[in-house]
Structures are given as C-alpha cells and as structure tokens.
Amino acid sequence: MDDDHEGPSQADIERFSNITRTCRECKKEVFDDAAVCYHCGHAFGAKEDVGMPTWALVTTGVILVIFLVFIMGGGNIF
Ligand SMILES: [Zn+2]
C-alpha cells in the first residue's frame, strides 16, 4: 500500500491546479483567490476587481432573458 496521508499527493495538487496560480515572483503555487502570495508576500494586482464578475453578468443576463420571454409570452408559456 502506498497510502500517504502526510500531505497532498501529486494527484491532489493536479486536482486543485485549476484553482491555483503560479506566483510570478517566486514561481510557487498559490490559491487563485489569494490576494497576497503566502510564500514571498507578493501582492497580486487587483486589476480584475472592477465591476461584477463574469458569472454574475451571465446570470443576470440569463434571468433577464427568461423574464422578458415570460412577459412577452403573456405568462402563458406553460
Ligand atoms: Zn510568491
């Protein structure tokens, strides 16, 4: 058995790789939602913190479309 519970295995790291990013200062992996690298203290830019996140815009758009279809259908879409 090669069941190691001492720390994250390589498989675990790969599984979470989509929510991490590489710090460009120290080249180490940090979580994507970290504002500051906890390895070297490098502060990530907040350039994408303007306005709503993309998922919020998409969700709002979908709700608006459904609402409009419902209104134009006179409420008889069922
Ligand atoms: Zn770093």
Describe this structure in words.
This protein has 78 residues and is mostly helical. It folds into 2 domains: 1-45, no CATH class; 48-78. 32% of the residues lie in helices and 8% in strands. A hairpin with a 6-residue loop joins strand 1 (20-22) and strand 2. The chain is elongated, with a radius of gyration of 21 Å. It starts with 9 loop residues before the first helix and ends in a 6-residue tail after the last helix. The structure holds zinc ion. The site of zinc ion has 8 residues, from loops.
Write the layout of secondary structure elements.
Elements: H1 10-15, E1 20-22, E2 29-31, H2 54-72
Antiparallel strand pairs: 1-2
User: What shape does the CA trace take?
Assistant: elongated
Provide the number of structural domains. 2
Q: Give the H and E element order.
A: HEEH
Q: What Rg do the Cα atoms give?
A: 21 Å
Which ligands does the model contain, each kind named once?
Answer: zinc ion
State the strand order across the main sheet: 1-2
DSSP summary: helix tally: 2
What ranges have pLDDT less than 50 throughout 5 or more consecutive residues? Answer: none
How does the helix and strand content classify structurally? Answer: mainly alpha
What is the arithmetic mean of pLDDT?
Answer: 79
The number of distinct β-strands equals: 2
